[in-house]
Amino acid sequence: MSSEGTTLPLEELCEAVIDCPHSTPVWMDYGVVVLRSSNIRNGRLDLSNPSFTDENHYDERSKRARIQAGDLVITREAPMGEVCLIPDNLRCCLGQRMVMLRPDSSKCHGKYLLYALQSKRVQNQIKSHEGTGSTVSNLRIPVLKELAIPSPSIEKQKAIAHILGTLDDKIELNRKTNETLEAMAKALFKSWFVDFDPVRAKAEGRPTGLPAEISDLFPDSFEDSVLGEIPRGWQCCSFTKLVDVISGGTPKTSIDEYWNGSIPWFSVVDAPPGSSCWVIQTEKRITPEGLANCSSKLLPTGTTIISARGTVGKVCLAGRDMAMNQSCYGLRSKAENGEFFCFYLTKSLVEILEARAHGSVFSTITRGTLDGVATISPSLEAIQSFNRSTGALLGKIKANLEENRILGNQRDALLPKLICGELRIPDAEKILEEAGL
User: Fold this and answer.
1) pTM of the model
2) Cα–Cα distance for residue pair 218/389, rounded to 1 Å
3) How many H helices and E strands in the chain?
4) Using one digit for the tens of pLDDT, what is the confidence trace for 160-196?
5) How many domains does the chain have?
6) In a domain, 218, yes or no
């Protein structure tokens, strides 16, 4: 198919195009999943932070159609044009500003349509309806139905979906692996420094289950403190006694020479989703001149970053040297080789920090907030042992994220070429073979 190949209106490729109910869902703490715009990013459904309604309101919101596996959901605004494919065994309904698409299998392969809707060719059509000024960008239903979708034969659609899906499958496998690795590291921190499992085992005369050289780092009894019982010999102190606090800053946006450089510049929009810990790329970058002319410092790889104004309590690790804006703090462990302990300690204190955040307009974590939170100070040897134990886990997570970045770039490069016919199917298959996929 050439770039001048067949296109069909989206409506002709679908059995149904169903707009969401124009009402706010009734929210519950559990029940049936309600899909929201925040759950759809980069072609993937993310339910790491789900929302729910009850059975009665699920039925009410599903009167026109019940979402089923293989359907697509596309956002109409905030942002518009994000799309995902509904997986098997997910019972859900539409929130606000969303539309369900049910592909007609005789004309359109569902996964191909997912990729076609993400292509620059179709996204440009969507973006042409963005609002300006005070107008909210909204993808109206008549416009959505008339989107011109490149429509090769079903056989070619399936082949394109398979090629792009192979890349996405590897990305998803890496993501799930990272979730497991992150859970392991988090569980180890909780065991050692929250539940004090090795100390309790030794106090009760039980084996710790740890190698002798690690087990020996933990005391065999407890003592009272302002935080309750803590391992004997460990201390209670202010959080800022354990970390150095680094402020951020923003280069002048009016000076072009300060922007689009080589230095990643972190803001809260760059915080990784779900349980991911590393941030390896940022939306904006600055130049060395921009860094030199603002209050931000260059944060070394491994620095903990916490969002401190507006959306507070987002915590991540700098995956490479980067700067950050003034709505964040960088935290560096005062203990040598204690960066991962610093990260998990910060995460363990997030609820306390959020509760103490203040401000008449925005919630704000200040240096005083950080200084006013008490925490435990384990032995240096225990901190460094934790860092060694989790280093391999977090290193693998970072490597998987880097691989996913490369795979995502490769997918994004192949997508438009396959959709418009610039790249032949056999040539794309050869690229995957050479990549070991």
Assistant:
1) 0.84
2) 15
3) 13, 23
4) 999 999 999 999 999 999 999 999 999 999 999 999 9
5) 2
6) no
